[in-house]
Structure formats: structure tokens, C-alpha cells
Specification:
Blueprint lengths: L2 H10 L8 H21 L3 H41 L16
Length: about 100
């Protein structure tokens, strides 16, 4: 299987994949770089403002995606550890569990 076929299969697979995270980070880094370069190289104030805001939003999206994946992996590891010991996992800090019948 070629790299192109692997990438297409990865993208088209149902659900999300942690293997796709580096590709998302690279794409967002390219967007941030292009927007930053455009904002720096133009003299038009409206374009500079627009590109600066878009760069900030892309950076925020990148940070939030990576934070979410880290939290997901942490919760998954806690669930697997609790599953091995037979205990119920602890709720997240500040969260309470109510049993609904």
C-alpha cells in the first residue's frame, strides 16, 4: 500500500484516529504560517487584521485539538486501568455522578 492510499484510507475511515493528529497539526501550522506571512507582507490594514485574527483562531484550534486528544487518552487509560482492577473509574474533578434508574 502506498503512502497516498494509506492517507486516503486513514481519512475515510469511520470515526476519528489519533494517527491523523500530526496531519491536522501540520495543516494548521501551514495555515498559521501563510496567514502570518500575509499579515506581515501586506500594507492593507484590513488584510493584516483579518490574517492576524485567522492566525489566532487557527492557533487556538490547534491547542484545543491537542488538549482534547490528551484528555481523551488520559480518560481512556484510566478506564482501562479501572477495567483491569474491576473498580469503577473516578469521575472527573468537580463532576458528580448520579445514578438514573
Amino acid at each position: 500500500m502506498s503512502a497516498g492510499e494509506w492517507a486516503i484510507n486513514l481519512i475515510m475511515a469511520p470515526g476519528s484516529s489519533v494517527q491523523l493528529l500530526p496531519v491536522i497539526n501540520l495543516a494548521l501550522a501551514i495555515v498559521i504560517g501563510v496567514m502570518g506571512y500575509t499579515a506581515y507582507s501586506t500594507d492593507n490594514g484590513a488584510v493584516q487584521l483579518h490574517c492576524s485574527v485567522m492566525s489566532f483562531l487557527a492557533l487556538g484550534l490547534c491547542v484545543v485539538i491537542n488538549w482534547f486528544v490528551g484528555e481523551y487518552q488520559k480518560a481512556k487509560a484510566e478506564q482501562e486501568a479501572a477495567g483491569d482492577s474491576g473498580a469503577e473509574p473516578e469521575p472527573a474533578s468537580g463532576a458528580s455522578r448520579r445514578k438514573i434508574d
